[in-house]
Specification:
heterodimer; A: Rossmann fold; Rossmann fold; Syntaxin Binding Protein 1, Chain A, domain 2; 7-stranded mixed beta sheet; 5-stranded parallel beta sheet; B: 5-stranded antiparallel beta sheet; 34 helices
Amino acid sequence: MFSHLKSQRVNLQLLQEAAHNELVQHLERIEGSKVVVLDKALVLPLGLVTEVKVFTERNIKLIVLSGELDVPKDVTNIIYIVRPQVSLMDQVGNHVMKLGQQGRQFHIFFVPRRSCLCEKQLENKGYLSSFGSVEELSWNFLPLDADVVSMELPHAYRDVTIDGDTTSLYQAAMGLVQLQRLYGRIPKIYGKGVQAQRVWDHAKQLAINEKSLYNGDKGAIDQLILLDRGIDLLTPLATQLTYEGLIDELFGIQQNKLMMPAHHFPASNIGIAGDSFAKLLGFPNTKIISLHSGEEGYSELRNKHFNEVIRLLERKVKELNIEMNKYSREHSVRQLHIFVDKLKILEEEKRAMSQHTEIATLIQTQVNEYTFAEDVAAEQEFMVCADIDKTSVYIEDQIARKNELRNVLRLICLQCAAASGLKEKVLNSYKRDLAQVYGLEVLLTVSNLEKAGLLYPQTESRSYAVLRKTLRLTVEDSVEVEPKDISYVHSFYAPLTTRLVELSLKPLGWQSLKSQITNLPGPTFEDFQAQLIGIGGRHVGTTPSEGSLLHVPRVVLVCFVGGCTFAEIAALRFLAAQEDNHVEFVVATTNIINKHTFLDSVMGS
Amino acid sequence: MPIMHDTGEWFKVRPDYYRKVELTTPDWPIDLDLEYMQVVVAPYGGPLAAIRDRTKVGPVKGSAKPIIRILDTTGQELGKILWNHGNLVAMGWSDTEELLCVQENAVVFVYDMFGREKESYSIGQEASVTKIVEAKVFQSTAGTGVAVMTTSGRIFLKQSSKAPMRKLPDIPQSSANCTCWEIITEERNSYCLLGREREIIKLFPGETVGTITANLFEKPTDGERIIKLSVSYNHQHLALYTNKGLLWLGSVDMRQKYCEFDTGRKDMPLQIEWIMNSDNSDSDAVVISYPSFLLIVNRHADRSDFPYDPIMFLVAEMDGVRVITQNSHEMIQRLPKCVENIFAVNSQEPASYLFEAQKKFEEKSYKSDEYLSMCRSQIDLAVNECIAAAAHEFCTETQKSLLRTAYFGKGFIPSHNPDEYIRILRILRVLNALRHPKIAMPLTYKQFSYLKPEVVLSRLVFRKHYAIAIQVAKHLKLPESSILEHWAYHKVMHDPNDNEVARKITEKFKNPSIEGISFCNIAEKAHQSGRDDLAIKLLELEPRAFLQVPLLLKLGKYDRAVASATQSGDTELVTTVLLEIKKKMMLSNFHMIINGYPLALNMYKKIMAQSSRTALYDIYNAMDDQKAMAEYHFLNAIESNALESNLSLIANSYTQGRRAVEAELCTDTGRLLKLQKALTTKHNSVHGHIPFYGMSVHDTMLQLLRMGEQKEAEKIKSDFKVPDRRYWWLRIRTLAENHKWDDLEKFSKSKKSPIGYEPFVEVCMEQENAREARKYIARCREDRKVYWYIRAKLFEEAADCAYEQRDRHGLDEIMRKEAVTSDPSLLRKIADYVNGLEARR
């Protein structure tokens, strides 16, 4: 169904198909005509595992959950597909009250787990009895791309750190077990950070009864690296400079979909991704652009530094121009035929290129804004720990101008991350400034940031300053075009997380890394899942010995607990592209985040 | 042809062979005399129940109360029931090996095979009142049913204990003279056949009246009466027996008569049972037992008879009839065709030759090859028959020789599929084990296949043959977990030592090859039998929290439930526990418990934040979390628009929570709000209503400056310790906004700017006043000038400046600007500069 998910070693199509089949099974178990009411938060994620076609083929109408529900009279089943949010249950309850009398049956599918709170809410109002079935669609990890799975939980980091609600960790653990069920036992596990450790502990506990996992040979994944977002809070706060990262930060990519005002794009191109779930959300005059590796040209551009993207686009357009004019003098019918066939491909390419030049132009105008450059410059000052222990004049000026609070807080947090904590005096000064300019309420937001570990008083340890040197987090002679090092994703700063992954790839990498990262918060752990040889666990067939496997790149699953950025993914893809590393990555994350979404999530109450 | 097989037990009832198979000789208890007993036997080698037959006069031994004794087929006593209910009318076994005892008042008592009472139920009010004279236990599609005939001649039946009671139609004319009756199940209905005089009455439920079938006999003599009727095991055939010794065999619907046969005997038969033959119903026969005599008659009216012990009981099986006497136990069955083919005298079948060939081969005789050549063309068939025959054999030696033959024969078949061979091998081992006197479940291969291994396993388990059950399960590759679980139940019920039980159970369960064992089920059993301590011990062994927690809750172990749930990390489970125990506990105790478990505490806070704010406050209070309380008050105050009145409360909480800065800011805000009120009233007359109230310090100052109230703004600046830098920003911004360029310039010169001069440029440019901006660019830091000139689009100056500073990079940037590229003279100038710089290098 989704060809872009296909890959050789860890084919995420399997994951998608499993999720799809689960949905279809649940749907087909319900007899009679039906409508499906979708939680708004699930509309786009649903598009990651299935197609609208699946519903239309079965004559099922799709509706987005809202206060009022317009259901055709003759429909006998109303099926809700929702996240387990108590707040949604009131709306559902209202529907039951209004529509329940006409002999309709209600059903509810929770994604990814049913929730006793939600059920209780319905039960208390007496609506639960109207439900024919309460099911769960155990979609823990959703496939985003051939090498990325995401839980699509935008508030995972926030829930864990601010509210202490570790649901997402447990869910991640279930997801890891699920992945192992599909792709086999992962023999080696490395990890860093408190929450990462928890995820692994739970995953191990959950797999205790999965005997089959331990009986067979190791699966397609050779290694799992679990990284807690909490060990590297600087990266998500920094401005990403890759193409994909910039698109996400400036316009927002949601589940591979980019929604842009249609007037930027020539009318002829509208409606390409028309038959998608995004349409359900009903934004008028919006162009929906699919962004994933299956899209022409995008896989080549997405991970490049924006400066390189512009050059690439220029070159591509030139090449395209030559290609399209090349055969115009040919005469024989056969050759013409070939040319026409090729023209189709070229047209497609042209369409993609024009789309990307348009997006790039839009990015360019924003990047050229003086404020953008100034922000990035300020960030970079912090990254190299310049004047890090004083209140930043740049930040103070931002406050004095009463510029956007989110950005101000982001810069303060970034300074805090780089300084590994702010001096008491500095922190208090910022607090006073913020309260005086933005009002007293800002204290509640600051309190959230404190709980989230983004703002904290300095202690002895200067982990960032140390690691910047030992792990070469900032690179002096970094190049943005045709780079040699992952630091290109932030011009000269290499995300700590990806640097850790990179170093762990070396022989004895993790062992030597262990002593270097003790000053990062949380435990450093490793684990080994051996094959269980019990009664009846006899070997079937022979295992290829380690030696014969050497020419096959190993597959490393990098799991970000608390979210990761496109820049981090780009860095990992860059590492995988280096032949010396001999590695393939699969990224698992709670959500794709960027500086805006990350801040929004932790700031909200 | 082969001599070794004991064909002496074969007998012929033309045209078919039958055989008697000797089963383990029963060793009845010394005080059990079958002669004076009424005996009912469960099929499939099940147990038998015996009670003194009150119709027979015999020596009274022991208690006067009737005792029902339950024995297995080897005479081992399994249990005893001291019958202290009313008059026992009939007994029978259910298909799940339960003993049903029907009492005079139509109450049915159900016992297990160890004599433990399980349940009792009644067959209706009417039967109970009028009392019953006879009862039949029969198999229906719904299970095992009971039919009763009341003193008034009415018949009621229940197809199972759960099924509704049905009343059959009245017997036409009179119920007198009915001599015998039987219940027949036909698909989902059970009906009754009654024998009266020379006719059969069919009572079908739902019909108003019974139907009579007469004229069944061809040449009945006078006074001929049906005295017995017997229905075959599969409810397909009917046998009638008259007082004159005439036997009628036919289909159960009486449309087809197989034969009429004059036994020539005048004595009463004891029992009549059908020998079934699933391969070929044409060769079915009946066994009639008389005192000391056994008669076998087949459908073709041929007979065979044997003298026997004086007392015998017949047990109908699906593939034969078992005969139990005081000192023997035999099975009479149609000789399986495959066995006949091999062992029959002068058999010409390939299997027979193969058998001989193997024997000769073992004897190292050349004749082996000769025999082999005679069956070579049909060796597949021969091998298959040998395997099949082995399955039907009871004698292990014969089994072995047959299987050896099959093994020998399959060597001559290229690419022989050994599955069937292996399957039979495995099953035979199990069957032989079951037939062992210790187990005493003599099953035929057919019965075993019909029952399914799972049922056999559960029967073994029920008889507490755990060890053999495990072996059988392993052998047949069936899961062992249910056996172990049952064993564990048994331990829980009968072993009084908690520690010992827990130890034994863990020892047995730790084997990694055993999957799907639930300690919780066992713990649940322990709980049910009132052993909560043991239950808790067992629960500790359960690794899966989602199974463990519900039971812990049930046991009232709330603390452990919370601990286990939080430890699992399953927030859903934690929530369930919280909701559950909150209902059952005092709030203070509840707070105390969850305080020890951060996850539980956090989840509780989260739930309460959505449902009950006051509960949230309670918990903060209980935990003495002052900062959280401050924020709680703060949030409430914002939502209810009552910040001012709550500020001291909030500040107080902050102070107690050691958040000095926050507290200080709250106090400041209090002062500010007062001031703002005063400002609003003061300026009302001049500027109209200005909503100062609620503005931040910064916005208040901005507002005042915009209004030109510089003094007051400065007062706030000093009152609230607003830094100079911020004040300067405000000043220059408002000045620029109001286009007071002279004032701005004056201000810039009042003293050295704490914010430098770039902000001046910036505010000028916000008002798009490049002329003013230029003044301040000149005062900026040298290295920033080019940048600001470019931003202010003063490219000429920018170029000059860049040239002065030898800033090649700056020049390049200027050249790229659109405004520059369209200005040839400027472009030329810059080009000159570039060249100049190049030249100087």
